[in-house]
Design goal:
This protein has helices at about 5-15, 20-30, 35-55, 60-90. With about 90 residues, the protein is an all-alpha fold. It starts with a helix and ends with a helix.
Length: about 90
Amino acid sequence: MPSAIRIPLLLAGVLLICAPLVVYALDSLIGLGRLDPLTLSTLIGTLGAGLLGFSQGDNWAKFFLALIAGLALTALQVYGIAFLVLQTSGV
């Protein structure tokens, strides 16, 4: 895969993996209305993990490693934020 495609995919994936933090910050500051922050942040973070994996090109080992690492990071963010929300709401 040419680096002209690989680098933007990598950067977009890294930015989208950080989406759970951004979504919950926006929800805390301005509110997202009817959108479910947990679903939205999980969907965007998973999309970022997929882009991060695809940026690795034809090497399947690197693809799966990047995909699993991106999904794990997204899961940790979502779990951590959900835990904080549940802890502060008293549920």
